[in-house]
Design brief:
By secondary structure, the protein is mostly helical. Helix content is about 60%, strand content about 10%. Strand 2 (about 100-105) and strand 3 form a beta hairpin. The longest helix is centred in the middle third of the chain and has 22 residues, at about 70-95. The relative contact order is 0.20.
Length: about 140
């Protein structure tokens, strides 16, 4: 099963928006694990509700403090979180992000942005978190 990252994201979004029955969860988890193992895609879980102005300030302060202390690896991690936070806040403010969704930034990273509390969104959250845990 070789598919592009765009095709994988489209398929995951169809599954997410069609609704996930409890009995489908295992099958979807297996699909996600295959994407990780066979195609070397990485999944990143984003809880959209935590990305706000306060969190952005925390990331920026952490980045600046780490750079000042010459801890560049930590500064880079804070910068990545800062970048994601800016993107999420912008999507929410522009009303582009109104529900959970999958997206990608590169040819290897698939992001699941969790932005709702429906049964389907909660099941997908559990599936993605389990897949990430298994792939560590």
């Amino acid at each position: 099963m070789l598919i592009t990252i765009k095709e994988a994201v489209e398929r995951l979004n169809v599954l997410l928006h069609e609704g996930i029955e409890v009995q489908d969860s295992k099958e979807i988890l297996e699909f996600v694990l295959k994407l990780q193992q066979e195609q070397k895609f990485h999944f990143y879980f984003i809880e959209a509700s935590k990305y706000d102005a306060e969190y952005l300030e925390k990331c920026t302060d952490g980045k600046n403090r780490s750079a000042k202390e010459m801890n560049y690896e930590e500064a880079a991690r804070y910068r990545e979180e800062e970048r994601i936070c800016i993107d999420i806040v912008e999507l929410i403010n522009q009303k582009i992000l109104t529900a959970s969704t999958f997206t990608y930034r590169s040819e290897r990273w698939i992001y699941y942005i969790h932005y709702g509390d429906s049964d389907t969104e909660s099941r997908m959250k559990e599936i993605i978190q389990e897949a990430i845990k298994r792939n560590k």
